[in-house]
């Protein structure tokens, strides 16, 4: 998407094209003054700190962290993280900059947004819509085929430790409407003070960016004229279609190019050419489709052997009959 996503290409299984690559995703952090953008997203998520002191951001502040560092800070296993070296640039845009001419500069090269509201100030939820609108109006986001796409956005409702469950429940309808009307990925209530519910949403956002960057979606040319009966949208897959392993930031999703469903890497170990579907070089297929192809090939081979044996027998029988007729013709009367 935007500056970070390129057209997916068909490539053989085991390709090392992703290895050792480095990607930097610029994510702008938006919201009115006092919502806790710095305390929640910059200090707590990136640095693991909470000072309890809020100060307004003048202009813009940013923090840079690698995906390895980020995952490790939330208990991830450094060795289990994707080979890609992913870095996040979190740009905190000062609340006073809203609608200002400088935001276009701050948004430049951004690929996603995080908007922060204050649970103690319901009006900041309404103001969040203005931030999302401003971001999408100033960031040109094109899909792999040149189509217009919305910049992915997630929403944090911070300071839930300062409101009662009843007050939080009263906010839920407006939050759900905000998600629906603004087409964002979702909202999460959180607390920078208690370090609650901050990391998983960021992981989900990064996962989406990585998936869009290395989309494994099936994109056949129109001229090939093939459509997948059971094609499964990448963003809707939460579990492997074979082993039911839950997908996370640390697992790749793979479309089986034979059936169109989505599997984990362990369930797509094979790569074969599927000429009937337009793939002349090896592409990933799931273990089920691979088994079906192997079985079909064996049956075809067996059938061919049976046909050959039958033909040989017929030929021998015919030859024997001819020899018998020839001997009869030569026998004296």
Question: What's the rounded overall pLDDT mean?
Answer: 70
- CATH superfamily grouping of the largest domain: P-loop containing nucleotide triphosphate hydrolases
The CATH class of the largest domain is identified as: Alpha Beta
CATH-scheme architecture of the largest domain: 3-Layer(aba) Sandwich
Return residue spans where pLDDT drops below 50 for at least 5 consecutive residues: 1-20, 55-60, 68-84, 215-225
CATH topology of the largest domain: the name is: Rossmann fold
One letter per element, helices H and strands E, the order comes to: EHEHEHEHEHEHEEEEH
Task: Measure the end-to-end span.
Answer: 94 Å
What structural category arises from helix and sheet content? alpha/beta
Tell me the number of helical segments per DSSP (H or I, 4 or more residues long): 7
Notes on the protein architecture:
Keywords: GTP-binding, Metal-binding, Nucleotide-binding, Zinc, Zinc-finger. With 333 residues, the chain is of the alpha/beta class. Helices cover 35% and strands 18% of the residues. The protein has seven helices and ten strands. It has a six-stranded mixed β-sheet, sandwiched between helices. The chain has a two-stranded antiparallel ribbon with strand order 7-8. Strands 9-10 form a two-stranded antiparallel ribbon. α4 packs parallel to α5.
